[in-house]
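Example: CHCH domain-containing protein.
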Amino acid sequence: MASSPPHDRSRKDDDDDDDPVERMISRTGCAELHYAVQECMAEHQDWRVCQSQVQTFKDCMMNFQIARKEQLMKQATSTDILVTVFKMKSLDSRIDPDQRVLSLSLASCIPPCINPI
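Written out as structure tokens, the predicted fold is:
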């Protein structure tokens, strides 16, 4: 039987390219700082020595998270307004003109606005 040994290391290791953590970190713009933490840890083998690199990486990730949250809030608010306008237009045909109808407005809403319909 000519099968390859179970620990065949001749195959190129492509795991680094498919690492989801690496992909996530590179999307944040903090990858270089992450690598600096890794290099410091590899060199010193003591997390206490690498605190400045860790703090810089942490700050970068926090800034990314804050910016991402703000982006999602703006996006969600725009989507909520569009959904509300669409739903209100679709309700027009069901409203009895003889009944009093509460006017729903997002003009006075402070984000995040919740669609009342």
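Residues 51-91 form the longest helix (41 residues).
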